[in-house]
Structure formats: C-alpha cells, structure tokens
Design brief:
By secondary structure, this protein is an alpha/beta fold. Helix content is about 25%, strand content about 20%. It contains 9 helices and 9 strands. Strands 3-2-1-4-5-7-6 form a 7-stranded mixed sheet, with helices on both faces. Helix 1 packs across helix 2.
Length: about 300
C-alpha cells in the first residue's frame, strides 16, 4: 500500500525521521561527492535528501508520483516539486545526471516500468541510487515507519531488477542497523549502532542502497552460451584458396540441346529450329549432324 505524502512528511519531522535522514544522507554524500553543474532529481519522496544539493547542482527537483501526492518544497525558495506519473516522467531523454529514488520503487505496482523510465531520462553513464526496504530487516516488519510499507526486496532481488533494466550495479550496501524504536537512548548512540551493526549484522539492516550506472549497451554473459553461440562469436580467419588447373578454371559454356528430329530424317540433313521468343518469328539455323544408324 502506498503511503500518503502527508504521512511521509510527518515521519521526517519526528526525531526518528530526523536521525534516519542524517544516517542516509551520510551514505548518499559518500557516493555523490561532486555534483557541480549536474542535474540531480529525486523520485518518490526524496525532498528530505535533496536540500544539500541545491547550492551545487545546476538543477534540482523533487518528482513526486500522483498516487502519492505532492507538497511544496522547499519552503524558503521557489518551488522545486513536480507532480508526475511514475512511468511517464516529464523530462527529455538523457537529461538527468543523478537520480535518487527513495520511497519509490517499493511503492509502485510496476517497478520494471519505473526503472525503464528512469533509464530513459538518465544521461549516458548517469547514476541511479535506489534506497529500498530490506526484506530481512526489522524495519520492513513494522508499519510504524514508511519503510514498513510496500514491497521489500532482498539484495539479490533488487540487483536482478536493476540489471534487467540495463543498469550496471556498482555497489550494494546496507544501512539503518539501528532498531526502529523511538527511544532517546537508542538514537542518541545511533552513529555507534550504525557503525557496528552494519559490520556485525548487515543482512538485518533496515534498507538496501544500490548504486547503479546506466548502460547504453548490454553485456553478453560468459555463462549460458551454447557451443553453437560460442562458435558464431569466434573471429573469422581468411583461408587461402587453392588454384585450379587451367582446364578446370575455364568457364563452362552451357550446352543447348535440341529436340531430336523425327525418325524419318535422313543422315546429314539440315534441321531448322526456333530460338528465342517464337512470337517474334526469330529463326536461326543450327546445323545438326545426325549420325546414320548402325545397320
């Protein structure tokens, strides 16, 4: 079930949401260190993570799906929020350099279509950062946070989904090792929880971060190729031709056969046959030597 935009905004206004934003923003910045002159877009509800790019990137916008709803962002500058259809983004081809998808992929009923639309708008070698709930994590089991809604993914599932949409997965990491409980003592030591938790129990973390690059040309896997397919991929080698004898190399002149004459034709007689189009009455005389029968 998709979470309404007002519920998402309220979550990030709570202390737990503020800490989640701080922890995930550290991971995002570690991957996107320099965005000067680039176009940075966020799909889903990515506005809590886009503010740090406003003074660096050439263009920044929050693309919010119509089924989720939209709220104005930011509040102190001209609005950068765009209400969109998730499978028909109002952007030209190859116009985005960085795409951040948060609370997006797990909320849609057609993740393949969403990824293909992201692929369309990304520039060649453009980068996509997916943040999805971890299927094995505690956060996906509790619906008190937005990460407990929608379709969670395992690491293998999200990697196969990304590669199937012609993205090359550069890195796949886990985050939010802190338990999703709103206790001040826990979140006061959230940095220590995150440091040790992602090392000791990474598979049970709350979310999975997939850093992927747009691939213009798909790669051909090594495994799965049959013998016939491998044979077709071998380089062509020129083979020397063998010279034929002069008699054999001479062009063969096709022989023209003529219907045998009637049995009453005498030996050594001349037979007139029609050659070519009979409608033109073109005639040519062919000398046929009819050998006499052996008596």
């Amino acid at each position: 079930m998709r979470v309404d935009v007002t519920e998402l905004a309220e979550f990030y206004e709570r202390p737990i949401g503020t800490q989640v934003r701080r922890l995930l923003m550290h991971r995002i910045r570690a991957r996107w260190r320099d965005v000067h002159g680039l176009s940075v877009m966020g799909l889903g509800f990515a506005s809590p993570y886009l503010g740090t790019f406003r003074n660096e990137a050439a263009r920044v916008a929050a693309l919010m799906p119509g089924a989720q709803g939209a709220i104005p962002w930011p509040s102190d500058e001209p609005v950068r929020t765009v209400l969109v259809e998730e499978d028909a983004l109002p952007l030209p081809d190859h116009s985005v350099h960085r795409m951040l998808a948060v609370h997006a992929l797990e909320m849609t009923a057609t993740p393949q279509h969403m990824l293909r639309e992201i692929w369309r708008v990304l520039a060649p070698e453009g980068r996509l950062l997916l943040i999805v709930p971890n299927r094995r994590g505690v956060w996906a089991q509790r619906d008190t946070t937005p990460f407990g809604h929608g379709e969670p993914y395992s690491r293998g599932q999200i990697e196969r989904l990304a590669t199937g949409a012609m993205f090359g997965v550069e890195d796949c990491a886990f985050a939010l090792a802190v338990p999703p409980i709103e206790i001040g003592l826990v979140w006061n030591s959230a940095t220590a929880w995150e440091r040790f938790g992602t090392r000791l129990w990474p598979a049970f973390s709350g979310v999975i971060l997939v850093d992927a690059t747009k691939q213009v040309m798909g790669a051909l896997p090594k495994s799965g190729l049959g013998a016939a397919a491998r044979a077709r991929l071998r380089p062509l080698v020129a083979r020397p031709r063998t010279l034929k004898s002069s008699a054999a190399s001479q062009p063969q002149v096709p022989s023209v056969t003529t219907e045998p004459p009637a049995a009453t034709a005498s030996a050594g007689s001349w037979v007139t046959s029609r050659v070519g189009n009979p409608s033109r009455r073109a005639r040519s005389k062919t000398k046929l030597l009819i050998s006499p029968r052996n008596s």
